[in-house]
């Protein structure tokens, strides 16, 4: 379970309910079938018009991603793996990586390993892997855009719902009590539209983009690591090269660890 998504939703809903209670608003007023129909139906319609069906079929998968914790290799783990591979390949050659492939679960990394083991040109390897990254990034952005569009139109549909409600309210001008309740009910659609747009759909899109960026950055690190191993540079050099993907504070820690490991690496390579 993705704790930040769940906690954020609970805080958002709790803030809305508590705010309404403090203002003396009856919570049952939120249950307005006409407003819910306009907001939910209109949002679904705008999304279906804006995207082809084969992209909309991914919505359940996207929702699952939002509510489950995504497991990625950390940059530190990635650097450690490539340092180990660099030491091994400099002693025994690239073919020794075949024995390491069964230990790798990441398909992108495994594909890159296979290409460098097969002796493909570095430029070809980079081109294939970068095209893979670009395709992944484009697919991720499409998923985020679905929620962005929903968040863009939901508040406007709320205004539409309010207008419809006001039209109905103005037909009861002879009864002040009914008129007041009708006007209040009319603005429920605006409330629901703004809430869903800015507390649900836009934040969902932003989280998908952040998760995508994390995955893309990790894959870019893998590309640099694989090409560095193919070129035969030392594990210390790989660490310096891949540390650019880390925050400055983490780079300093990695740099200190690298200095401590250089002597051991040199001794191991001499042997």
Automatic annotation (TrEMBL):
Membrane topology type: Multi-pass membrane protein
Ranges for domain MotA/TolQ/ExbB proton channel = 102-217
Motility protein A N-terminal domain ranges (all copies): 6-73
Q: What is its main location?
A: membrane
Q: Which cellular compartments is it found in? A: Cell membrane
Report the transmembrane regions from the record: 35-54, 153-172, 178-201
What are the UniProt keywords, alphabetically?
A: Cell membrane, Cell projection, Chemotaxis, Cilium, Flagellar rotation, Flagellum, Hydrogen ion transport, Ion transport, Membrane, Transmembrane, Transmembrane helix, Transport
Similarity section? Belongs to the MotA family.
What is the protein name given in its UniProt record? Flagellar motor stator protein MotA
Q: What is the scientific name of the source organism?
A: Chengkuizengella axinellae
């Amino acid at each position: 379970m993705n704790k930040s998504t769940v906690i954020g939703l609970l805080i958002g809903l709790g803030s809305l309910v508590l705010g309404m209670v403090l203002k003396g608003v009856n919570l049952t007023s939120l249950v307005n079938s006409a407003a819910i129909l306009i907001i939910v139906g209109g949002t679904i319609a705008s999304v279906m018009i804006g995207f082809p069906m084969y992209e909309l079929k991914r919505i359940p998968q996207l929702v699952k991603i939002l509510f489950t914790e995504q497991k990625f290799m950390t940059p530190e783990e990635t650097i450690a793996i490539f340092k180990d591979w660099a030491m091994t390949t400099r002693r025994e050659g690239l073919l020794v990586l075949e024995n390491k492939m069964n230990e790798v679960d990441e398909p992108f990394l495994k594909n890159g390993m296979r290409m460098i083991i097969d002796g493909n040109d570095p430029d070809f390897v980079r081109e294939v892997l970068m095209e893979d990254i670009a395709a992944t990034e484009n697919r991720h952005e499409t998923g985020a855009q679905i929620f962005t569009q929903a968040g863009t139109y939901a508040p406007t549909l709320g205004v539409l719902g309010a207008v419809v409600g006001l039209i109905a309210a103005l037909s009861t001008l002879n009864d002040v009590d009914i008129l007041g309740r009708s006007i209040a009910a009319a603005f429920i659609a605006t409330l629901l539209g703004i809430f869903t747009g800015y507390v649900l759909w836009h934040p969902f899109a932003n989280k998908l983009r952040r998760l995508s960026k994390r995955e893309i950055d990790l894959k870019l690190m893998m590309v640099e690591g694989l090409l560095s191993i193919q070129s035969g540079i030392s594990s210390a050099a790989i660490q310096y090269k891949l540390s650019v993907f880390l925050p400055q504070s983490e780079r300093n820690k990695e740099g200190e660890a690298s200095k401590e490991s250089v002597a051991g690496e040199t001794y191991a390579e001499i042997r």
